Every structure is written in structure tokens, then in C-alpha cells.
Amino acid sequence: MLLVLLIAIAFALITVDIRGGEDSPVDGARQAAASVFGPIENGVSGAVDPIGNAVTAVRESGDRHDRLAQLERENAALKAELGSDDRSRSRLKQLDKLLGVAGKGQYGIKGAQVIAIGAAQGFSWTITIDAGADDGIERDMTVLNGDGLVGRVTTVGPGTATVLLASDPDFTVGTRMEAGDELGFASGQGDRPLRVELLNGKAEIKKGDRLVTFGSQADKPFVPGVPVGVVSRVDPSGGDLTRTLYVTPFVNFSKLDVVGVVVQAPKKDPRDTVLPAKPKPTPTPTVTVTVTPSAPAGGPDQQEQ
Predict the structure, then answer these.
(1) Contact criterion met (CB below 8 Å) for 101 and 274
(2) What pLDDT score was predicted for residue 282?
(3) What InterPro entries is this protein classified in (predicted)?
(4) Which tens digits make up the pLDDT trace of 241-270?
(5) Closest CA to 26 of 142, 172, 155
(6) Which of 92, 131, 156, 168 would disulfide-bridge 135, Cβ 3.0–4.6 Å?
(7) Mutual orientation of helices 48-60 and 67-105 as an angle, nearest 10°?
(8) Per-residue confidence at 31, pLDDT binned at 50, 70, 90?
(9) Longest CA–CA separation in the chain, Å
(10) Are 148 and 223 within 8 A, CB to CB?
(11) CA 3 to chain centre
(12) Inter-residue contact 275 to 213 (CB < 8 Å)
């Protein structure tokens, strides 16, 4: 009976939370949970290496300290060193791209690292970052990385924050087509492309066109000009008031590590300046065939006759 009662209470809280939306009555409890679980997540993330070393030490303890065990230790140490270098190079590359995006868009950002995937407070497409209220992070701030739009901050604890990813079905952001004024709204669809509803049902859009964020009032929750994605499919226009597009996001949501929270919006809309340079089309090789006329049969004497 106790188990049934707890399950019923859990479903009731989930229902109330979903219906409440941004003004959910359980938001206070969610923030309290972030304050409790955030430091734990951060600590677990930082303790992975010591635990791994302890496990290795236990495994190697005992009387079997022969040549084979020594080679295994040396091999493991070498792999760890190489792996650490690879990860450092990867993070340095991500940070460099992030700073490049921030510079082009004139975004004031606070750098952060992803320490958990999926929040302890819900079931949405979320990540937890190691920056919170103590770092100047507030709710409804734009989160990006070196590729483009990652999401927006939804819950803030003292040292951590929860970010709702752009791939979440409850995520919606205003968009603008590159080099134009066609506006729309992009919504997440999990691991599928973003769904964009353009306000102009007769807009001329083609595969390969790109989108950026349109921006929000007072720049919350979204600042303008952040790259969103590339059009991968356009539904045929059937005379509807809107037009549906499917957009492949620039960001790979399964490979998030270094991100930036926009704590200061740009003074003016950067428009399309943050978008990456378009790849140059590969030229198609052409083959020219020259036909040489052959001499008539019979030789020169027969030609004179």
C-alpha cells in the first residue's frame, strides 16, 4: 500500500508540474533539489579519476607483482596520459570555438562544463553545468557552444544550473532565416530534426538554408543571432498560413562538454555574422572528347578518281 501511495503521489506531482509550465508550484522544490544534488553531481564528476585509481590499486594489490603486472600498469598509465592529452586538446578546441562565437556575436559569456546529462529533478532533455547563482547565472539565460544554440537555463542552484536542451519537445525558440526576414518558431523533437513553423506560408525556402535565433524581449530567454541549424527538408506548401521546415541543428547534443552561458547580451543584433562560413562547393570535373576525322577508305588514288 505504501508503494502504491508513493507512486500515486509521484504521478500527481508530475501532472501538476507539467500543467504548471514555467509557473509550476513545484518549482521551489526543484530549486531546492538543485541545491542539494548539484554539489553531489559536481563532486562525483571530479572524483572519477581518484576512484579509478583506487580500483586500480586494489586490483594490483597482492602477491602477483611479476613482470606481467608491471607491464599492465605501465600500459594503463600510458593510456591514461594519452587520453588526458586528447581530452585536453578537445576541450581547448571547444573553448577556442566558443570564444570565437562569443567574439563575433559580442556576447558576454560565463564558461561552464557539463557535469551531468539529465537532471535529477525531472525527465526532460537536460544537462547540468558547473556554474550557478554564485557565478552570476540566472534563469532564462541563453546557453551556447562553439557550434550554436544549446538551450536555456531553467533551474539555478548556488554552484550548478540545469539547462533545457533545444532538442527537448517543450523547447521553443523564435528563428530568422539567413539573409532574410522570414520568421518562425523552432521546436525540439528529441533525437529528430527541429520542427520550424514559418509565419509566412508562401516563403521561398530550400534545403541548405540556415537559421539563427530571432531574440526575445529584453534578451531573455534568447539573445539574437545564435546559429540554430540547417534546413534538411521543406514540406510542400498547401496554401496554409504557415510553412513547416525540418532543421538539422548545428549542435550535437550527445557530445556536449564546454558551453557558455550568455550573461550579457550584445548591444546590437549581430544578424548573420555568427554563422560559420559556408563550405565551398566541390567543382564537378568535366571531360572534353575531341573526335579526329578518319581518312576515307581506298587511299588518295581512289579519292582522285
Answers:
(1) yes
(2) 65
(3) Cell/Rod_1 (IPR042177), Cell/Rod_MreC_2 (IPR042175), MreC (IPR007221), MreC_beta-barrel_core (IPR055342)
(4) 788 999 999 999 989 999 999 999 999 999
(5) 155
(6) 131
(7) 170
(8) low
(9) 117
(10) no
(11) 38
(12) no
Q: How far is CA 111 from the centre of its chain?
A: 15
CA-angle at 209, arms to 191 and 230, nearest 5° = 20
Higher pLDDT, 108 or 277: 108
pLDDT in tens, 129-162: 999 999 999 999 999 999 999 999 999 999 999 9
Helix (H, G, I), strand (E, B) or coil at 186: strand
Tell me how far the alpha carbon of residue 129 is from its chain's centroid.
13
User: Across-strand partners of 227?
Assistant: 212
Eight-class DSSP state of 305: -
Residue whose C-alpha cell reads 559536481 in the numeric block: 42
Query: Is residue 141 within 8 Å of 263, Cβ to Cβ?
Result: yes
Return the ∠ at Cα 41 (arms to 39 and 47), rounded to 5°: 100
All 3 cell numbers of residue 113? 562544463
Encoded amino acid at 303, one letter: Q
- What nine digits make up the cell of 28? 521551489
Interior angle at CA 278, CA 274 and CA 280, nearest 5: 155
Do the beta carbons of residue 179 and residue 272 sit within 8 Å?
yes
**Rounded CA gap, 295 and 302, in Å?**
12
Mean pLDDT of 12-17: 72
Helix (H, G, I), strand (E, B) or coil at 35: helix
